[in-house]
Amino acid sequence: MAPLGANRDQLVTVTIELDAPSVAEATADAGGDLTSGEEASTRALSDGQQDSLVTLLDSLGGQVLYQLQDAERRGRTRSRSAVPRLQAARHVTAVSQASLLEPAVSRPSNAVADVLTKVAPAWEALGTTGAGMSIGIIDTGIDYTHADFGGSGNPDDFAANDSTVIEDGTFPTAKVLGGFDYVGDAYDAGSDDPAALVPVPDPDPLDCQGHGTHVAGTAAGTGVTADGSTYTGPYDAAALDTLAIGPGSAPEASLYAYRVFGCDGIGRGCHRRRRGRPGRAGRGRCHQPVARQPVRRRQGLRSPGRSTTPRSPG
């Protein structure tokens, strides 16, 4: 990674951290829930610092991509030439270059994974199938029209779905209870096109790349029968030999889809490591991602009754 002060004319995305605590950090410092008044004052302090920084960014020709007050006290912007001024600005504790994150591509069989992880004995002996639990998938979204999540499995339903809006009766579903698309189809953090670097959020987290569907299937897919329909149980070892797509580890858990990748692109973020208790000396810092693998659009193998997804979402 080049030093942040180098190549001043090059576009760069950075994460800026301020010393005002977020609501989450203030809650952790307090050792319990904040009152509504304390939450409001914490947000107000964060908002005030961010407003001052936004004014500075505007004067330097930077662009604010997003701001956070509740989760972490940071925002993100693009502009390398502005970095030295940002690092010297009041209340700024860190300016870190955002790393590129790419969804991995691998498609093992869920049935094989279920055998290796020995979830079938847990289903049978303990009845632990995930019922009553919810799992959030932060990835490329979820193809909730897939039969593995209670959808029709009809490729025409996927093709007719407008992924920028939520049509009546399409989403949420009984399996995928909610979610959001934070970036839009065209977002690509590795692109040279400035337009592709700007997230365009929309309410529909429908997967157009495939990896998030794969992950969701591994975690909580219901399974798909040989004729392409949704499997609804019973969940035991015997079922693994009869299904076209094996169940996920927690097949009766509910899912939430949070999409942070475009259809063909990569995302930005950082691998964060906390040192010590929350506080100035213990704030997290950005590091390079642990691993990076190339992104490929889903293609080729199909699941029974479904021509728009990999053979197994798990």
What does this structure look like?
- The chain is α+β, with helices and mostly antiparallel strands.
- Helices cover 23% and strands 17% of the residues.
- Helix 7 links the parallel strand 7 and strand 8 (254-259).
For the structure shown, list the relevant keywords.
314 residues, disordered C terminus, 7 helices, 11 strands, 23% helix, disordered N terminus, three-stranded parallel β-sheet, alpha+beta
- Count of helical segments? 7
Radius of gyration: 22 Å
User: Strands of the biggest beta sheet: in what spatial order?
Assistant: 2-3-1-4
Distance between the termini: 34 Å
Q: Number of DSSP strands?
A: 11
Helix content: 10-25%
Q: What is the residue-averaged pLDDT?
A: 77
**Silhouette:** globular
**Main sheet: strands, sense, barrel:** 4 strands, antiparallel
- What's the helix-strand series? EHHEEHEEHHEHEHEEEE
Uncertain segments? 1-6, 270-312
Structural class: alpha+beta
Q: Beta-sheet strand percentage?
A: 15-25%
